[in-house]
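Write out the bound-state structure for iron/sulfur cluster.
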Amino acid sequence: MLPQSLAVYIHWPFCRSKCPYCDFNSHVRERIDAKRWTRALLAETDRQAELAPDRRVASIFFGGGTPSLMPPATVAALVERVRAHWPVASDLEITLEANPNSAEAERFAGFAGAGVNRLSLGVQALDDDALRFLGRAHDHAEAVAAIGLARDIFPRYSFDLIYARPGQTAAEWDAELDAALRLAGEHLSLYQLTIEPGTAFATRAARGDLVVPDEDAATALFELTQSRLAAAGLPAYEISNHARPGCESRHNLAYWRYQDYLGIGPGAHGRLTRGTEKFATQQRRAPEAWLEQVETGRGEPETTPIPRDSALEELVMMGLRLGEGVPRARIEAMAGCEVERRFARTLPRLIDGGFLMLDGERLRATASGRQRLNAVLAALLA
Ligand SMILES: C[S@@+](CC[C@H](N)C(=O)[O-])C[C@H]1O[C@@H](n2cnc3c(N)ncnc32)[C@H](O)[C@@H]1O
Ligand code: SF4
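---
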């Protein structure tokens, strides 16, 4: 039997500037000691390898922050270290998130040389005014050039767009989707703009200076996105992710299928199965605190057991994001009873409302359920 598969996430927490909508663990620093960061990320990979021996790595994901600011030699060293600790799948997927600035595009060949075989570009908009509004450091021409380069250099690529921007009409988004589909390869991530607490956009929204589309308008944009992408052969396999069948992000599927993954780097979290129990790992969030912790070994990060009820909630919360839903057998193994019995109080109402579907094999959210998944989950798990 093949060893259990493992996904490895590595977080690079630095960006050139902070985008006003973003609440990811990303920081702007004047100077970054790349050698020190490389040593620390390698050391943390070594430490976490002991938590998950006897696995086979199926994917590595360099996320951020802006991992395209990493020296390609750092990426190469980390890939090599992962390969030294574990056997890897013959089709090992190695993704790196990149910003489309021309300076970073110059490193793409270096990343490919380091083993990266899938590039995920943060394009965000195909319109100069929208890019300025989103506070991005690149313009439309740079984005198109970076996509062209990604297509030439990497076997697989994807790019991200943010829609439901203030004042954006369905006709405008439809035209932007036309442009996106002309540039797309096998995969696109299309996110609805969310106003995250603590961001510059949240401050502006609180003042009334920034108004996002209301729920009806956002729903119409979501539905337009679903139908346009399905018609183009890239149906949604997750709320915001679209791919040609077989071209999904294997790494992200591991999260949503609640499989095991390591989280290496500031703020990264992991999930590991031991026997029938799930464990969580969590890294310090502030880059300097993380670095000091790894270098001194003081206050080693914790690996904490996840109570069975919480693990069941996580399984359902992640799995209902996916079109394929959650296997009934996995829910029942964790719950110790039938799905109908575990969610007896809330499930019938959500099925009748057209938000969830249950058959002999799977519990799934309908497209309408996925559009308002937080509310559906709150009701289901109440
Ligand atoms: C970690 S970030 C991207 C990495 C890379 N630094 C970049 O900006 O291109 C992942 C993606 O989340 C999306 N995102 C971040 N904040 C968002 C928000 N508030 N609303 C919608 N999408 C958001 C963006 O599309 C972004 O590309
Ligand atoms: S969206 Fe990307 S570039 Fe902008 S602050 Fe967030 S992680 Fe950094």
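---
The chain has 17 helices and 15 strands.
The longest strand covers residues 88-98.
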